[in-house]
Amino acid sequence: MTVSLKGLVEENIVEINNKLGYTTCWLYNFKWVSDFGKFVNMLFTRSKSLSIILPYAREDKDVLMNTIRRIANDKNASVIILLTDKISTDNFLVCNKQN
User: Fold this and answer.
1) Residue 29 above 70 pLDDT?
2) Quick check: pTM over 0.70?
3) Helix residue ranges, H only, the chain
4) Burial category of 52 from C-beta neighbours within 10 Å (exposed 0-12, middle 13-18, buried 19 and up)
5) The domain spanning residue 22 has which CATH number?
């Protein structure tokens, strides 16, 4: 099920995603994802351009961002990684461009 970023994240993040065309978003819970690297790898097999929004308060955000960047680079994909204070540390958002 898709979600609207409006109200979930800061307005500037909504604007950035809209300007770049990332208008279809899904809310995921880290508890549902047993292997984050494999999950991100799967995402990039389905899309070559993503916006991933992580919680700023998450302690392992640097590791997560490096994992995302490495996989995007390996898949020759583009990614924008944004941090938000508004979502729980258990959640993250993935947005792609509407086809």
Assistant:
1) yes
2) yes
3) 11-20, 36-46, 61-74
4) buried
5) 3.30.1330
